[in-house]
């Protein structure tokens, strides 16, 4: 019996998706629930599994096409799958690879499939690479985008990338050098959406940034003292982000307008604290939202953040986990940033920017001492937040971090 493979229902507020890549070709055998194709929306990558075991007979939509919910993507002929059968395309590719290399570089028939993200698969396809050729540095040997780029730059990757001779061109003075070239690639759906939202924030909000600095001596001492016992007790690492999140919640309670948003001529005050934490992924910046952070313990926060960050990295995060935040935190310090002005995440009215920790000489009780210091930045919507409130909000965070006991006592 022939079965239609259709685009599944898309997340709320998403009207269409882009077909990224097919993982099967006509004539290939597929197993029930095996991923057939990746669909990319503004925020997430959706996998379309096979509804039954059988043979893929026809593909109706090619890579790069825009599809909507219910569109027919392919036809599947239901039937028993021979577990020992190998798709002809895979077999020919493996034979060709062994013939060219003369070694066992090709994936062995009895080895399991190598899991890769859609971005990595796209990069492998662009450079005509087999996943088994690239050493993976991620969890359980997973291949990252950085692994592929490093392979292309290495001697092994150089052989693949430079199979053709490099074109040369003579300049006006007779000098010979490599030809200059350009490459034009379309933005991914996520990158286009990020660009759209950043421009929207610049256009609609009256953004202003205020700065302060915080001495992290006490936080670092507390973290160092209890890090091992915390991880042993809760099974999760004690990071810096939980301290900043808890300090932000205390500041939001004192200055609720920073937790508010603008809708037309109204100010909507939120009596809950859903924090968006910016996460850098291979596909671009994502901001997973942690709900009711005021009700979380430090361990709850670290555990939930770790799970959401992992889902963002592997592309399995859902749309509902990326929407609805009331305040955001971004940490440019992990990339070495000393100071920046973060951009609002509409419709939120405030975002806290963390930066690199640097040891600097500071005057403490009349003496010069070396302290671990971090610059903080608060970008806020000046339409509803006055400078006084913004400055005092940042001072509240500073006080909570320089005296972590305030977080316990909520003062």
Spell out the key features of this protein.
4-stranded antiparallel sheet; 21 strands; 30% helix; single chain; 7-stranded mixed sheet; 411 residues
Q: What is the CA–CA distance across the termini?
A: 67 Å
Report the strand count.
Answer: 21
* Rg of Cα set: 26 Å
What level of helicity do the residues show? 25-40%
> Beta-sheet strand percentage?
25-35%
Largest sheet: 7 strands, mixed
> What would you call the shape?
globular
> Low-confidence stretches at least 5 residues in length (pLDDT < 50)?
83-111, 155-166
Task: Indicate the multimeric state.
Answer: single chain
The whole-number mean of residue pLDDT values reads 82
* Number of helical elements: 10
Please identify the structural class as seen in this structure: alpha+beta
């Amino acid at each position: 019996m022939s079965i239609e493979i259709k685009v599944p229902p898309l997340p709320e507020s998403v009207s269409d998706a882009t077909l990224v890549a097919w993982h099967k070709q006509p004539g290939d055998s597929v197993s029930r629930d095996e991923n057939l194709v990746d669909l990319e929306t503004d925020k997430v990558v959706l996998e379309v599994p096979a509804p039954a075991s059988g043979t893929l007979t026809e593909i109706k939509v090619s890579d790069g096409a825009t599809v909507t919910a219910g569109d027919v993507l392919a036809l599947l002929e239901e039937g028993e799958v021979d577990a020992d059968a190998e798709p002809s395309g895979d077999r020919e590719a493996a034979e060709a690879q062994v013939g060219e290399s003369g070694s066992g570089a090709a994936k062995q028939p009895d080895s399991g499939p190598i899991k890769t993200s859609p971005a990595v698969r796209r990069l492998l396809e662009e450079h005509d690479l087999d996943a088994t050729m690239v050493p993976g540095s991620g969890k359980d040997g997973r291949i990252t985008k950085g692994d592929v780029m490093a392979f292309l730059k290495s001697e092994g990757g150089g052989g693949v990338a430079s199979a053709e001779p490099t074109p040369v061109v003579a300049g006006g003075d007779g000098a010979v050098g490599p030809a200059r070239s350009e490459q034009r690639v379309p933005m991914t759906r996520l990158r286009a959406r990020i660009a759209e939202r950043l421009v929207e924030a610049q256009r609609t909000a009256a953004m202003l940034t205020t700065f302060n600095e915080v001495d992290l001596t006490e936080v670092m001492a507390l973290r160092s003292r209890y890090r091992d016992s915390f991880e042993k007790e809760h099974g999760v690492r004690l990071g810096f982000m939980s301290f900043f999140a808890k300090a932000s919640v205390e500041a939001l309670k004192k200055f609720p307008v920073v937790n508010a948003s603008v809708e037309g001529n109204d100010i909507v005050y939120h009596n809950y604290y859903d924090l968006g934490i910016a996460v850098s992924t291979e596909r671009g910046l994502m901001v997973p939202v942690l709900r009711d952070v005021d009700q979380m313990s430090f361990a709850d926060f670290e555990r939930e953040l770790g799970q959401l960050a992992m889902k963002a990295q592997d592309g399995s995060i859902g749309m509902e986990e990326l929407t609805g935040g009331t305040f955001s935190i971004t940490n440019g310090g992990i990339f070495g940033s000393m100071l920046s002005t973060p951009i609002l995440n509409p419709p939120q009215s405030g975002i806290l920017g963390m930066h690199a920790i640097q040891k600097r000489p500071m005057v403490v009780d009349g003496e010069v001492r070396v302290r671990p210091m971090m610059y903080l930045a608060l970008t806020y919507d000046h339409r509803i937040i006055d400078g006084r409130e913004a400055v005092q909000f940042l001072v509240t965070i500073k006080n909570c971090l320089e005296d972590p006991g305030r977080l316990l006592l909520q003062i």
